Amino acid sequence: MNAFHRFVTGALLCAAATFALADDLHGPHYPDVVSSARGIETSSAYVLLPSSVPGSMTVNHCTNCKSTTLSVTDKTTFFVGSRQVPFAEFRGRLAGLTPTFMMVYAAVNGPVALSIVLSAPPIRSR
After folding, report:
1. Of the segments 7-16, 18-27, 62-71, 99-108, which one has the largest average pLDDT value?
2. Angle at the Cα of 34 (from 31 to 36), degrees rounded to 5?
3. Phi and psi based region of residue 27 (left: phi greater than 0; alpha: psi -120 to 50; beta: remaining)
4. CB atoms within 10 A of CB 118
5. pTM of the predicted protein model
6. Which helix (H) or strand (E) holds 3?
7. DSSP secondary-structure letter at 53?
8. Measured between alpha carbons, how far is 46 from 58 in angstroms, rounded to an integer?
9. pLDDT tens, residue by residue, 89-108
10. Which of 11-25, 61-75, 106-120 has the lowest mean pLDDT?
11. How far is CA 69 from CA 35, 48, 84, 87, 89, in A?
């Protein structure tokens, strides 16, 4: 083997070793992340809540969008901003409110509402 062949062989071996080591330099390998909830962005104008819990709710993304029906259970949580509130208080905040952004988090494995978040300013105490 002449000098050129030794150089090319050495260069290829170095390149292969570099690629093999580069995979280890990216840090630890973690298992795939699997989400247990899907978020539905909507407005309070497109949500029809049940009168009591348990019950079912209807959610639309927009006026002409296909609606989604979700079960609301005793385990469904309700938030006004970042504060968790009881269902009755949540419904009360929606009454007479101008259309406001909402996030509905539903289970990926079934039509169940896990949590409902109303993006609203906190109530000011007097």
Report:
1. 99-108
2. 150
3. left
4. 19
5. 0.69
6. helix 3-25
7. S
8. 8
9. 999 988 878 889 999 999 99
10. 11-25
11. 20, 9, 23, 18, 22
